[in-house]
Hints:
Blueprint: H1 6-23, H2 25-38, H3 40-53, H4 55-131, H5 133-146, H6 148-161, H7 163-177, H8 186-195, E1 211-214, E2 229-232, H9 234-240
Antiparallel strand pairs: 1-2
Amino acid sequence: MPHKDPIRRRVYLTDYQRRWRIAHPEEARSRDKVYRDTHPEAVKARNAAHSAAHRAERKVYDAGRYAAQREQREEKKAARAASRALRLEEKRVSKAARQAVQKAEKEASRAARQAASKEKTRIYHAAWYAATREERMAHQAVYRANNRDKVKATITAWRKANPEAIRIQQQRRRARERSLPATLTRAEWEAIKAAYKGRCAYCGKKPKRLTQDHVIPISKGGGTTKENIVPACHPCNVQKFTNLPANPVQLVLV
């Protein structure tokens, strides 16, 4: 029988008490409370003895628990930092996208307003110039009559400073006199020279000054347009005269 062996009897009673406490939790708690209230010194002494007997184990347990808690805190801190960084990045990307959309909308709105204003201004100026043409011409005629020397000096200085513009005007006038297209501008002429890298379209040389040559001469129906003008040195232009090019010319459109 288990009760005849002290060790086995103690194990049996311990196991019995454990099962009984599980089966009667409320009654077990009530008995414990009664015992603590009636035997405070005994409970205190037992707790002190248990603490003294398991001090080393308690230290090891506490160290492990504290280390685990510290690790958990570090993991939570890292997770919060990563979450915060992710939220900040999402917020930054969202803000950048929103600002880009707003900027594009503002630029489109500004461009539309500017286009509308430019067209409105153009129409207004065209109407004003048409309505005041006679008045302005009369005013300019009076000014030129009263300031002949000043006007002449201004025109002479401008012609001297803008020889390319004078040549373009002359070429355009010649084309208009024959009722031919005359749309070449100074900017287009500069672009044509830049496209040929400052070289003659016929001989390939790089002279100090390039002249405008009509691939199809004006006398043969060629207009003064960017599609019919090439840069040429003076000798090549004179040699070609009013003829078509002896060799095909590679036109560089601008």
